[in-house]
């Protein structure tokens, strides 16, 4: 709903509707669903059209002169460029998220929201897109990049749906796929793929998040029974903040310290049943509901603990380390540290997907704010009509730089996704490739999630009171995206890991370098700093953007350009 005062402030077919009226795929609002065709006829943009809309704004495709001064572009080619390598997958996922039954409904209590999202997972199973990454032997497509490309689009329907789907198939299922063997794939993945076996990813503990190597849960092998004794030794070792753990999870991939023959071989992963068919915990398994959260309340986050639960030896996901019947431990990776990081590296897709989902959320927020800025009018400036907000330079400056950053993040994510696909498809899977992928994911995830939070907040403020209404989505997006900064790795810690990798690389590069190499490096760095700090790089880009030598020369001669260059020289010398 929109107050009476706001009705006269909107134009072009959206009177009485908020700025996000069409910003959710399919145009659904809290009052019900509106067909996309009706929205388009009314002049309201639909989220699935955003890339084509941007392309159309840049120019015509029929070869005729546009009425404005913008360049003529090939709209179809630009749209495909923006959608990237997996354009068809993204289009299919957007069509899916346009279904009203997948949309978030404001005002639901926690239990209603959870139930709705649980039902939505069944729709995803029927669609089949969630099976894209799994092995062909169980009906998957082994399309790792396409899987994430489609998954990211779910944020447009409801971030809770995106994350709960990610828990089921991107974490729980992926742990079985990447840490288990073909036997595990054949036995366990079919139930995971069809949602017959909903599950949790039990790594984080109340007392240990980023420091996974120090988790307290233990799995001690008993050669007399052929089982592992899975145990939570103290309260801080409870598994915590786990999606699917509070209600829906029937099993979990549990990370624990593997102990056999008196030796701790470090963290390994086990497939552990949690509940029976009635939803009751199995003997020795306990837990709690995390309750209401600051966002993502469509997900049943909870805690788990284990009191000497017997886990069959076959349930050890033993791709990187195995225990024989007599208790002998073997691994193809001799170094415990390298083995640990190899296991964790196979789970990097969580960070990759959050990078893309955060960028998608930033796009949604900007679409809402730009739509509003193009319709809302305020103050008369020289004419008889009030000015559109986006005609004000200050309003442009608060949004347009963020649009540019968002597109940069989108292209960067496409590169990351390509590298992820190359590694996991085997096309380019060396130790160096995996390390580079892990470093890029650790760098991009903090930058994109912080950018998304900043952009959503700015978009909220740019929409004034309308931005504070729940039906216009911005406050909900802000609440749901808040945790993106800390799950799948705390952003600050991730950037420290990136810094460590960069420093290690520099040390390797110059470990045996002579004075000449060091001197050349110092000169290169000094030149680069000079270029960046004096404004020459900005000037060069501005001249290139002119697209004409004559216009470029003209700008270089302008007093403002010369003044900026002289000012930069004074400030930096």
Automatic annotation (TrEMBL):
Residues 1-36 are annotated as: Disordered. Keywords: FAD, Fatty acid metabolism, Flavoprotein, Lipid metabolism, Oxidoreductase, Peroxisome. It is found in: Peroxisome. Its EC number is 1.3.3.6. The keyword Flavoprotein applies. The keyword Lipid metabolism applies. One of its GO terms (molecular function) is FAD binding. GO terms for biological process: fatty acid beta-oxidation using acyl-CoA oxidase; lipid homeostasis. Its cofactor is FAD. Gene3D superfamilies: Butyryl-CoA Dehydrogenase, subunit A, domain 2 (2.40.110.10), Butyryl-CoA Dehydrogenase, subunit A, domain 3 (1.20.140.10). InterPro entries: ACOX_C_alpha1 (IPR055060), Acyl-CoA_Oxase/DH_mid-dom_sf (IPR046373), Acyl-CoA_oxidase (IPR012258), AcylCo_DH-like_C (IPR036250), AcylCoA_DH/oxidase_NM_dom_sf (IPR009100). Residues 345-503 form the Acyl-CoA oxidase C-alpha1 domain. Belongs to the acyl-CoA oxidase family. PANTHER family: ACYL-COENZYME A OXIDASE-LIKE PROTEIN, ELECTRON TRANSPORT OXIDOREDUCTASE. This is acyl-CoA oxidase. The lineage of its organism: Bacteria, Bacillati, Actinomycetota, Actinomycetes, Micrococcales.
């Amino acid at each position: 709903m929109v107050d009476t005062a706001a009705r006269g402030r909107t134009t072009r077919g959206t009177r009485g509707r908020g700025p996000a009226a069409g910003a959710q795929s399919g145009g659904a609002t809290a009052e019900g669903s509106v067909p996309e065709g009706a929205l388009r006829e009314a002049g309201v943009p639909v989220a699935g059209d955003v890339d084509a809309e941007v392309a159309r704004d840049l120019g015509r495709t029929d070869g005729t002169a546009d009425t404005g001064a913008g360049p003529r572009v090939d709209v179809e080619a630009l749209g495909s460029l923006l959608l990237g390598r997996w354009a068809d997958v993204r289009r299919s996922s957007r069509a899916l998220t346009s279904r009203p039954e997948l949309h978030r409904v404001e005002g639901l209590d926690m239990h209603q929201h959870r139930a709705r999202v649980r039902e939505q997972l069944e729709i995803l199973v029927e669609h089949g897109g969630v099976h894209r990454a799994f092995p062909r032997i169980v009906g998957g497509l082994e399309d790792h990049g396409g899987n994430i490309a489609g998954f990211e689009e779910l944020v447009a329907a409801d971030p809770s749906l995106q994350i709960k789907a990610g828990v089921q198939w991107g974490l729980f299922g992926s742990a079985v796929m990447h840490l288990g063997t073909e036997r595990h794939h054949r036995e366990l993945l079919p139930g995971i793929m069809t949602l017959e076996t909903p599950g949790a990813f039990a790594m984080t503990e109340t007392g240990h998040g980023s420091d996974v190597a120090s988790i307290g849960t233990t799995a001690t092998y008993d050669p007399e029974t052929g089982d592992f004794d899975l145990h939570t030794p103290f309260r801080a070792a409870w598994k915590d903040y786990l999606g699917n753990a509070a209600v829906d999870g029937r099993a979990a991939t549990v990370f624990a310290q593997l102990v056999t023959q008196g030796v701790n071989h470090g963290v390994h992963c086990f497939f552990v049943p949690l509940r029976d068919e009635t939803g009751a915990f199995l003997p020795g398994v306990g837990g709690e509901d995390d309750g209401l959260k600051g966002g993502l309340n469509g997900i049943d986050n909870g805690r788990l603990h284990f009191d000497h639960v017997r886990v069959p030896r076959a349930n050890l996901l033993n791709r990187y380390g195995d225990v024989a019947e007599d208790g002998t431990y073997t691994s193809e990776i001799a170094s415990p540290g390298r083995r640990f990081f190899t296991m964790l590296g196979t789970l990097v897709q969580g960070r990759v997907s959050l990078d893309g989902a955060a960028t998608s959320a930033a796009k949604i927020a900007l679409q809402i704010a730009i739509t509003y800025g193009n319709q809302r009018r305020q103050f008369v400036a020289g004419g008889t009509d009030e000015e559109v907000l986006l005609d004000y330079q200050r309003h442009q400056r608060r949004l347009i730089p963020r649009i540019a950053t968002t597109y940069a993040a989108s292209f960067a994510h496409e590169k990351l996704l390509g590298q992820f696909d190359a590694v996991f498809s085997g096309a380019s899977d060396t130790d160096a490739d995996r390390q580079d992928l892990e470093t890029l994911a650790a760098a991009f995830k903090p930058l994109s999630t912080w950018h998304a939070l900043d952009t959503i907040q700015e978009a909220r403020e740019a929409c004034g009171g309308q931005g504070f209404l729940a039906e216009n989505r911005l406050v909900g997006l802000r609440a749901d995206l808040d945790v993106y900064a800390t799950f799948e790795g705390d952003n600050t810690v991730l950037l420290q890991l990136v810094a460590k990798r960069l420093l290690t690389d520099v040390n390797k590069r110059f470990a045996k370098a002579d004075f000449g190499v060091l001197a050349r490096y110092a000169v290169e760095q000094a030149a680069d700093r000079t270029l960046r700090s004096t404004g020459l790089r900005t000037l060069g880009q501005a001249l290139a953007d002119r697209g004409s030598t004559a216009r470029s020369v003209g700008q270089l001669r302008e007093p403002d350009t010369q003044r900026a260059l002289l000012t930069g020289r004074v400030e930096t010398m």
